[in-house]
Structures are given as structure tokens and as C-alpha cells.
Amino acid sequence: MGRRANTTTTTNESTTNTNPLLGCFNKGVYTNKELMVLLDCKDNTLRGYRNDGYLGFSQIGDKIYYTSMDIVNFLMLIH
Q1: Which stretches of 8-74 are assigned E, i.e. beta strand?
Q2: Given the DSSP bridges, would you call strands 29-31 and 58-60 parallel, antiparallel or unpaired?
Q3: Which of helix, strand or coil describes residue 63?
Q4: Residues of 42-64 as b/e, b for ≥16 C-beta within 10 angstroms?
Q5: pLDDT digit of tens for each residue in the chain (79 aa)?
Q6: Directed axis angle between helix 43-51 and helix 32-39, to 10°?
Q7: CB burial readout 8-40, b (16+ within 10 A) else e
Q8: Which of 17, 25, 54, 79 could form a disulfide with 49 if both were Cys (CB 3.0 to 4.6 A apart)?
């Protein structure tokens, strides 16, 4: 059997070197639909943010994905 790395950290350790907003987004990758629900906006709004360069994203085929860091950077930019 393979060995698992110890991934347990305390809250202080996990936020010391990262942005505290990342704690709000504990899922690694979000779909376009999930982000529309989180931000309470429509697809066209997200498309505009992506096209204007405000919101980072990744695309695989016709699917759009956002990392937690993409979302945090966007929120810091518009706040």
C-alpha cells in the first residue's frame, strides 16, 4: 500500500502565507454555473469580466473553470 502525506494543518499555518479570502473558497475548481451562484450574477456578466481581463479562468473545450485563486484575485480587484 502507498503512503499518504500528512495534509493536516492548523488554521494559523494555512493562512500565514496565503490570502485569507482563500479560506472562503475551499473547493479547488469552480464551474461557470457554480460561480454564477456564488456571485449572484448571470453568464453574460462573467463573460464580460473574462473578456475584459478582470477574471482569470481556464477552458477545456467549451467548459469554463475558475480556480480559487482566480476568484480571490477578481474579488480583490473589484473591491
Answers
A1: 29-31, 58-60, 63-67
A2: unpaired
A3: strand
A4: eeeebeebbeeeebebeeeeeeb
A5: 444 444 333 334 443 445 666 666 778 899 999 999 999 999 999 999 999 999 999 999 999 999 999 999 999 998 8
A6: 100
A7: eeeeeeeeeeeeebeeebeeeebebeebeeeee
A8: 54
- Beta bridge partners, 29, equal 67
Give the pTM.
0.69
AA letter at 75: L
Radius of gyration of the chain (CA): 15
Q: Which three cell numbers stand for residue 14?
A: 494555512
Q: Which three cell numbers stand for residue 39?
A: 456571485
Residue 19 in grid coordinates: 490570502
Q: C-alpha dihedral over 10, 13, 19, 24, to 10 degrees?
A: -10
Q: What is the identity of the amino acid at 60?
A: I
